[in-house]
Design a protein that fits this description.
Strand order of the largest sheet: 3-2-6-9-10-5-4
Structural class: mainly beta
Order of helices and strands: HEEEEEHEHHEEEEEEHEE
Oligomer: single chain
Helix content: 10-25%
Strand content: 35-45%
CATH topology: Pnp Oxidase, Chain A
CATH architecture: Roll
Shape: globular
Number of helices: 5
């Protein structure tokens, strides 16, 4: 099938998010200007750059996380895993400004080193970030979309050493989860290696 996006797909469910999957879950913790903690998952999240490391998430609407990140210039990414799945899902609940999602999901907060936002103590890996870019997307007609991109430079990394094996972070042992389409999720339970032709020791027959 083919469809022009302005005309719609004609399917019962939008295939877009299912096609662009799996996606890392941006489990983002922030504090507001009064120091109140917030924690929420974002399905539009990914690594943006290396050297320096940068990550970014997009919010559909100016919700607590992007608003707090814009005001304070900081946020923390917390890795979502299978043991933390139910708690992560609970933090997607829209609570008022005075409520604490950590407490609502019965999650312990841990202090960060370089930012004010707390970390999820039970998460195997957390990235402390300073905001370097904040913008509202415009569509091809130049109209505002009420979709906001937040990009942060990683200034500190926390890793539970139980998940480091042979000098590498073990995503399988951590049971990292990812967001797919609809209400579907994926679990990292198997990895395979694919070397590049330019990697040392890899022979490429140029005939």
């Amino acid at each position: 099938m083919f469809y022009d996006t302005p005309n719609g797909h004609g399917l019962p469910w939008d295939p877009f998010k299912a096609i662009i999957s799996p996606r890392p879950i941006g489990w983002i913790s922030t504090v507001d200007q009064k120091g109140r903690a917030n924690l929420a998952p974002y399905s539009f999240f990914n690594a943006m750059a290396s050297r320096p490391n940068m990550v970014g998430f997009t919010s559909e609407g100016l919700k607590h996380s992007p608003r707090n990140a814009r005001h304070t210039g900081e946020f923390v990414f917390n890795l979502a895993t299978l043991p933390l799945m139910e708690a992560m899902n609970k933090t997607s609940t829209e609570l008022d400004d005075d409520s604490n999602e950590f407490e609502f999901a019965e999650l312990e907060m841990a202090p960060s080193r370089h930012v004010r936002a707390p970390r999820v103590a039970a998460s195997p890996a957390c990235l402390e970030c300073k905001v370097v870019h904040f913008t509202e997307f415009e569509d091809i007609e130049g109209a505002k979309t009420d979709r906001f991109l937040v990009v942060g430079q990683v200034v500190g990394v926390h890793i539970d050493e139980a998940f480091i094996a042979d000098g590498r972070f073990d995503a399988v042992k951590a049971q990292t989860i990812a967001r797919c389409g609809y209400r579907d999720y994926a679990l990292v339970d198997e990895l395979f290696e694919l070397l590049r032709p330019t990697d040392p020791g890899v022979f490429v027959d140029k005939k």
